[in-house]
Recover the amino acids of this structure.
């Protein structure tokens, strides 16, 4: 029997090909780095102006997966990894580019073993069932993912409804429980990050929470996350600016950023709104970058605070 200190190996019949792949995962793309890339990708996906539109129309799991893959590719390009969509009945796979096959579409090469699998599940609180029920189904799905050595989950929960729709008081109460953390994940899952935003469209609106989770049996395999550096934050800001260039006049951007900074200096708190956090972070970073400066002291502390709040 092969030693398995990290708990990465799958059942005995699959032991032969996996040790080298599991080693490759840990050496080439640390689990905590995959988690950070996934959380950043989720933050950018939630900032997409089309997010509320798609949420109001129906199931968003497929769209959310493709958007995550788009942002994950940008984040993992320097590591020579890529995101595959809908391979081996898994929503997303993160694999070294050498394992990908280029044909009519990018897919997993023959004989290659999946490296990092991601499952996405959506829960609308206006429908029957509870947050814990959705978490339980996600946990079961993660257990069925097959040979992937590392498995991550994304649980998207919303209490958004159309104006005039029959409103169940339990929908609001369940949303409040999710918001304050009373609605808990099921046994066997551990939350790594939670992102939150409000969606407001004509005649449609509500709250959205995105939880990034991992089976507790695999938490140790992810390793301990390194500190976010200025270079890490700069790389995220560049991707955010490339994906969502601001069309606001500079004066409006400056007013929002100045108001947020003044409140932080006085009370030590940053904005709660997802989009405001991202816009303030990008503006503060660009303001110093354009004059050839890097933040230090209080400026760096503020930018890291904005980044941390954005990533939940």
């Amino acid at each position: 029997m092969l030693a398995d200190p990290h708990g990465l190996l799958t059942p005995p019949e699959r032991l032969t090909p996996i040790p080298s792949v599991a080693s490759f995962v840990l050496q080439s793309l640390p689990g905590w780095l995959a988690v950070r890339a996934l959380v950043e990708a989720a933050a950018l996906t939630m900032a997409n102006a089309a997010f509320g539109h798609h949420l109001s129309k129906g199931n968003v799991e497929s769209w959310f997966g493709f958007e995550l893959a788009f942002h994950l590719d940008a984040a993992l390009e320097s590591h020579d990894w890529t995101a595959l969509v809908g391979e081996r009945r898994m929503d997303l796979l993160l694999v070294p580019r050498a394992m990908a096959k280029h044909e009519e579409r990018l897919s997993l090469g023959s004989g290659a073993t999946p490296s990092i699998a991601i499952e996405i599940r959506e829960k609308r609180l206006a429908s029957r069932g509870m947050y814990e029920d959705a978490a339980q189904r996600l946990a079961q799905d993660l257990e069925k993912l097959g040979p992937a050595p590392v498995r991550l989950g994304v649980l998207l929960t919303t209490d958004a409804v159309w104006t005039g729709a029959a409103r169940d008081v339990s929908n609001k109460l369940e949303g409040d429980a999710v918001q304050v953390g009373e609605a808990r994940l099921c046994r066997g899952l551990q939350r790594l990050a939670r992102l939150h935003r409000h969606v407001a469209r004509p005649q449609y609106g509500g709250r959205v929470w995105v939880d990034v989770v991992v089976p507790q049996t695999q938490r140790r395999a992810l390793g301990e996350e390194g500190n976010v550096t200025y270079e890490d934050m700069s790389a995220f800001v560049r991707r955010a600016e490339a994906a969502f260039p601001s069309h606001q006049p500079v004066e409006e951007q400056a007013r929002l950023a100045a108001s947020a900074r003044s409140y932080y200096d006085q009370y030590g708190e940053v904005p709660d709104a997802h989009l405001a956090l991202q816009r303030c972070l990008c503006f503060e970073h660009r303001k110093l970058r354009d004059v050839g400066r890097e933040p230090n002291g209080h400026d760096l502390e503020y930018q890291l605070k904005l980044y941390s709040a954005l990533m939940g």
About this structure: The two ends are 40 Å apart (CA to CA). The chain has a mean pLDDT of 83. The longest helix spans residues 250-267. Strands lie at 81-87, 90-96, 100-102, 106-108, 116-124, 150-158, 161-162, 189-201, 204-215.
